[in-house]
């Protein structure tokens, strides 16, 4: 299957961001992409650097304006699209939500971000209610796709549950970067850990992993920090954790790659981790601390 990742820098102008996304979707579709993955909260800036109630005005319903706009693009080009939206579910109730659009533009399914961070410059708990749709892959015309979002990347439980439910690929729309006061060494440790943990999900579950991150610098509106330099480095890993292809850490980039989905079966025969799981001995996993 030909898979495309669209890694881009954004501004506060949603219209220009959407125009750039539309152009890039058309470009990767012309290269034969069947599945197109967009980065986390792709319509605007990463607004979670501050806590500002006016930002809730940016949220939208699902279905809504974005699913209509991107649904038309999906249908026009015959691609499956992975969106990442700020969902307004009800007054005062908001989610960070991924939406899977089918080739005919209809909604195949949704996933609401389950793990919500609350770190300096990543104040997501102020905006997002934790998801309630569970770890259920979405059936599409290109396969059964397990979509998770950014902070979910650090949790092997989420990846495992998606794989156990039949996901053929794990997909992570992401917004992560460096705070400028960190040392060069610390920045590299952070990015290396981010890549390593996602590669480990591919290895442990014997399936490919797609990670689509944003790129570029976004200032902190409060001026308390020096903003975030999103590190890009979007990548596709194979079922043994091998990096098959990746983008740069500095520029907008469209990545199109022909992924061999049949390799999962071969790798799982070599490394039968699912066969050897001791499901009789894992009950303590549901405890906060033993």
Account of the 3D structure:
The protein is α/β, with parallel strands linked by helices. It has one domain (2-286): Carbon-nitrogen hydrolase (Nitrilase/N-carbamoyl-D-aminoacid amidohydrolase), CATH 3.60.110.10. The protein has six helices and 15 strands. The strands form three sheets. The protein has a six-stranded mixed beta sheet. A six-stranded mixed beta sheet has the order 6-7-8-10-13-14, covered by helices on one side. A hairpin with a 2-residue loop joins strand 6 (138-140) and strand 7 (143-147). Helix 3 runs parallel beside helix 4. The chain is globular and about 50 Å long. The model has no long low-confidence stretch (mean pLDDT 97).
Write the layout of secondary structure elements.
Elements: E1 2-7, H1 14-30, E2 35-38, H2 65-77, E3 80-90, E4 93-101, E5 107-112, E6 138-140, E7 143-147, H3 156-164, E8 169-174, E9 177-179, H4 184-205, E10 209-213, E11 215-218, E12 228-231, E13 235-237, E14 243-246, E15 253-258, H5 263-270, H6 273-276
Parallel strand pairs: 1-2, 2-3, 7-8, 8-10
Antiparallel strand pairs: 1-15, 3-4, 4-5, 6-7, 9-12, 10-13, 11-12, 13-14
Helix pairs in contact: 3-4
Going by CATH, the architecture would be 4-Layer Sandwich
Structural class: alpha/beta
CA-CA gap between termini? 43 Å
- Low-pLDDT sequence parts: none
Q: Strands of the largest sheet, in order across it?
A: 5-4-3-2-1-15
Q: Biggest β-sheet: count, sense, barrel?
A: 6 strands, mixed
Estimate what percentage of residues fall within beta strands. 25-35%
Give the CATH superfamily.
Answer: Carbon-nitrogen hydrolase
Q: What value does the Rg take, in angstroms?
A: 18 Å
The CATH topology label is Nitrilase/N-carbamoyl-D-aminoacid amidohydrolase
Integer average pLDDT:
97
Discrete helix count: 6
What percent of residues adopt helix (DSSP H or I)?
A: 25-40%
Tell me the number of structural domains: 1
The total beta strand count reads 15
- Large-scale geometry: globular
CATH class: Alpha Beta
Order of helices and strands: EHEHEEEEEHEEHEEEEEEHH
């Amino acid at each position: 299957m030909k898979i495309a990742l669209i890694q881009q820098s954004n501004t506060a102008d949603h219209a220009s961001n959407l125009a750039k996304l539309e152009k890039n979707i058309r470009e990767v579709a012309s290269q034969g992409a069947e599945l197109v993955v967009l980065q986390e909260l792709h319509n605007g800036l990463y607004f979670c650097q501050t806590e500002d109630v006016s930002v809730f005005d940016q949220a939208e319903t699902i279905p809504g304006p974005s699913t209509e706009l991107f649904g038309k693009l999906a249908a026009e080009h015959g691609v499956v699209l992975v969106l990442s939206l700020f969902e307004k579910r009800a007054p005062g109730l908001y989610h960070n939500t991924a939406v899977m659009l089918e080739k005919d533009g209809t909604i195949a399914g949704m996933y609401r971000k389950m793990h919500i961070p609350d770190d300096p410059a990543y104040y997501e708990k102020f905006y997002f209610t934790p998801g309630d749709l569970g770890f259920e892959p979405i059936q599409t015309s290109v396969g059964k796709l397990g979509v998770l979002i950014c902070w979910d990347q650090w949790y092997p439980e989420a990846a495992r549950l998606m794989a156990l439910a039949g996901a053929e690929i794990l997909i992570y729309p992401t917004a992560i970067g460096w705070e400028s006061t960190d040392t060069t060494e610390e920045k590299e440790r952070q990015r290396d850990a981010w890549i390593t943990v996602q590669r480990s999900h591919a290895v442990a579950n014997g399936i490919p992993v797609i990670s689509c991150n944003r790129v570029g610098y976004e200032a902190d509106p409060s001026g308390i920090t020096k903003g975030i330099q999103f590190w890009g480095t979007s990548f596709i890993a194979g079922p043994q954790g091998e990096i098959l292809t990746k983008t740069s850490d500095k520029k907008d980039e469209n990545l199109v790659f022909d992924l061999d989905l049949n390799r999962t079966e071969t790798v799982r025969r070599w490394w039968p981790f699912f066969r050897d799981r001791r499901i009789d001995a894992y009950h303590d996993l549901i405890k906060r601390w033993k």
